[in-house]
Amino acid sequence: MYRNEREHEIIKILSTEKYVTVKQLSTLLYTSESSIRRDLTSLENQGMVARSYGGVELVKNTSQILPFSTRAHHNIAAKKIMAKKAGSLIQDGNIVFLDQSSSAFFVAYELLKKSQITVVTNNIEIIALLSQSDAEVISSGGRLSRSNRNCLVGDDSHHIFSQIHADILFFSAKALSHDGIVYDCAREEVCVRNTMLANAGKKVLLCDSEKFGRTSGYRQCSVRDIDYLITERERQEVYTKFQELPQMIL
Amino acid sequence: MYRNEREHEIIKILSTEKYVTVKQLSTLLYTSESSIRRDLTSLENQGMVARSYGGVELVKNTSQILPFSTRAHHNIAAKKIMAKKAGSLIQDGNIVFLDQSSSAFFVAYELLKKSQITVVTNNIEIIALLSQSDAEVISSGGRLSRSNRNCLVGDDSHHIFSQIHADILFFSAKALSHDGIVYDCAREEVCVRNTMLANAGKKVLLCDSEKFGRTSGYRQCSVRDIDYLITERERQEVYTKFQELPQMIL
DNA sequence: TATATTTTTGCACGTTTTTGCGTATTACTG
DNA sequence: CAGTAATACGCAAAAACGTGCAAAAATATA
Q1: Per-residue CB contacts under 7 A with strand D, chain B residues 25-54
Q2: Residue to substitute from A133, A137, A158, interface B, most B β-carbons within 10 A
Q3: Nearest to residue A147, comparing CAs of A187, A109, A120?
Q4: Is A207 helix (H, G, I), strand (E, B) or coil?
Q5: Is B217 within 8 Å of B183 (Cβ atoms)?
Q6: Cα(B8)–Cα(B241) distance, rounded to whole angstroms?
Q7: A78, A74, A160: which is closest to A123 by C-alpha?
Q8: Statement: residue B60 has pLDDT above 70
Q9: Do B19 and A8 touch (CB under 8 A)?
Q10: Can you give the distance from the CA of residue B43 to the C1' of nucleotide C9 in angstroms?
Q11: Which residues of B touch A1 (CB under 8 A)?
């Protein structure tokens, strides 16, 4: 992690000072500017600081140690709200399909509160999370996606989803158009999700309101094919946008 | 666990100080720097501390998201040596099978240095590691093992290994008896490994010398079935123990 | 208690890593 | 497009490291 004591000090200094110059650091830490620069190069490579000509500042959200959590989850607040709502649909003993979305990842957190759950997913991040839990966890297999390196895709990923019938599926998408078509941008991920849709009882779409009224590259399904739509907004706010929608959850 | 009182003290100091130098420790504990270094090597091998030039810090294995990446591995030094040797057997463009052992995890590190590699594994930890790399990564699928929560087992885990023929397989075991039988302790893991063995070109056993002359619950295979045996010791030292062995690597 | 055996310690020495300086290169500034 | 400042890079010196070895300490044995 840290190559030496100085790198610790630099981070400590940056936690109080917003921005420091290389010269200041070399004075403060009684060492040459060369050494400071070498430290900064290392810290930069680890994504801990952001350099600019003459100085450096701290990168926010330094909880990066792990390959995944570094990946910025966008709109976390919305996803947490949706996950809470999703939790109310899950019962002890359920078999749950979770897709490769980060929305589904937050639903996995809710699963930790339930008992006797079986989870089937192609999302590596979810498998890693649940490896600590006492849930039964089943991974789909397949090739690690190149575009979105936290999920398994390709022919081999379909197999398990067609072997198991889930009580409930939680999935997400890139876009939901006004005429009720669900879109995603990655061909292979749409394919796997189709197999999930075909083998699940309740089908639940997690879709934050940012995605309303848009389209994307590939058609996933229609809102008519699903049972529940979950957003981070209030039921009322959403009804005005889509007239003929299925039962929605708050 | 701890080899002496000092190692306990070092951990105690590290629980309050984030980072300490070797010099500080030798003063604090009234002993030579050599002895401190020996303690640190031991603690590092147990995965308890992370060293860097000049000092050490505590390993934080409290990471919630990815439980294993920082998890303590036993006998890390031996595994690193074996991984280095393993690396010399891997060529660019190879298809590599890696089993669920932590020895194989260290081999995965060596793969980061190669190009055009395809990795097939049932080890979640390896998939997580390589998700950052540009290697082609294929996961076996299956049920997350209850005994060893970082790997996939069961019927579904076999499929991929029988579909793909690997250039080389790296695997480990719990024991290697004097008459050349390789043993492991988990039934399900032995089964998957059998499928790997059946579908690999070169078969390479990673086995640190601690495991020599022992047995365990389930028979995996004979040394006659494998092509290379890698240990952390010198070739000479091992030859004296096993007379009729396959070509060994240093 | 005395003696043998094993383990630990500290020092010396060869190796590896880091450091800081000089210099070439690259990036901002007017 | 100069002129200056910051940075990157090569190299020799310094610091830190690992290891073998003999002395010391701890442990086992008689």
Answers
A1: 33-34, 37-38, 40-41, 51, 53-54
A2: A137
A3: A187
A4: coil
A5: yes
A6: 36
A7: A160
A8: no
A9: yes
A10: 18
A11: 50, 52, 57
DSSP 3-state of A238: helix
Q: Report how far residue A104's alpha carbon sits from residue A113's, in angstroms, rounded to the nearest whole number.
A: 15
- Kindly tell me the burial class for residue A157, based on how many C-beta atoms sit within 10 Å of its own C-beta (0-12, 13-18, 19 or more): buried
- Which domains does chain A possess? 3-59 (1.10.10.10), 69-249 (3.40.50.1360)
Q: Six-digit token pair at B177?
A: 């008896």
- How far apart CA A103 and CA A82 sit, in angstroms, is 8
The residues, any chain, with a CB within 8 Å of residue A12's CB and separated by 6 or more, are none
Query: Distance between CA atoms of B158 and A219, rounded to whole angstroms?
Result: 33
- Round to whole Å and give the CA distance between A123 and A171: 11
* C1' (C28) to CA (A53) span, angstroms: 8
- Give A-chain residues touching B161 at CB under 8 angstroms: none
Residue B99: pLDDT over 70 = yes
What residue has token string 């294995």? Answer: B61
Q: Are B200 and B236 in contact (CB under 8 A)?
A: no
Q: How far is A236 from chain B (nearest CA, A)?
A: 35
**Structural contact between residues B39 and B56, judged by C-beta atoms closer than 8 angstroms:** no
Paired tokens of A192: 């796997």
pLDDT tens across the length of chain A (250 residues): 788 889 989 998 998 888 999 999 999 999 999 999 999 998 988 778 889 888 898 876 433 333 454 444 677 888 988 999 999 999 999 999 999 998 999 999 999 999 999 999 999 989 988 987 889 999 999 999 977 778 999 999 999 999 999 999 999 999 998 888 999 989 999 999 999 999 999 999 999 888 888 889 899 999 989 999 999 888 777 776 666 666 666 6
pLDDT at A158: 95
Asked if residue A110 lies in contact with residue A89, where contact means CB atoms within 8 angstroms, the answer is: no
| Secondary structure (DSSP) of B185-205 | S-HHHHHHHHHHHHTEEEEEE
CB crowding A36-60: b at 16 or more within 10 Å, else e: beebbeebeebebbeeeeebbebee
Structure tokens at A115: 């008992």
Q: What is the DSSP letter of B171?
A: E
The Cα A201–Cα A126 span in angstroms is 21
Neighbours of A224 (CB within 10 A): 10
Q: Higher-confidence residue: A228 or B61?
A: A228
